[in-house]
Design a protein that fits this description.
With about 160 residues, this protein is mainly alpha-helical. It has helices spanning about 5-55, 60-85, 95-105, 110-155. The chain has one domain (about 5-155).
């Protein structure tokens, strides 16, 4: 295998890795959406059930309801943070002068080296973004779990 063929092979591997990172990012956004939908449904259902019964709320029920609302809004904020526009990093620069100097006007080896370097930089940025988003999704899920526990307490605290 010649040197340029090796570069092309490694570049193709990095391109696939970059695509997997972007797909993982999409999955994190889907998970955040599922958490938000679940929390909204459960909170709405339990709240409606409590309203229908029309019982006078005890102090424990009032405190628990406040906790549920705080947890719901925390989950909402965490889920929305996952969806915020991210600093998307594509491989390379979208400027004609950079493309011309580093790729078109460069010899084959420098062009391939630059392409590989571009992918590595984009991969590092994507991994950092996914790490941040996975933390947000994790805390949104924890918030949902705590919310469910508080709602169960609310059901029986009257």
């Amino acid at each position: 295998m010649q040197r340029n063929e090796k570069y092309l092979y490694v570049i193709d591997e990095q391109r696939q890795f970059y695509q997997h990172i972007n797909e993982a990012n999409d999955h994190l956004e889907t998970k955040a959406s599922a958490i938000l939908q679940s929390g909204s449904f459960i909170t709405g259902l339990i709240s409606a059930a409590k309203l229908v019964t029309g019982t006078t709320a005890s102090a424990l029920a009032t405190v628990t309801l406040i906790a549920v609302l705080i947890l719901f809004f925390a989950m909402l904020v965490l889920s929305l943070l996952v969806w915020l526009p991210k600093g998307y990093t594509a491989p390379g620069k979208a400027k004609w002068t950079a493309i011309f100097e580093k790729h078109i006007n460069a010899d084959d080896e420098n062009d391939l080296t630059q392409t590989l370097s571009n992918y590595l930089e984009a991969i590092d940025a994507g991994l950092a973004q996914n790490k941040r988003q996975s933390q947000l999704v994790k805390w949104a899920g924890i918030s949902l779990g705590a919310q469910i526990i508080a709602l169960i307490i609310l059901l029986f605290a009257s």
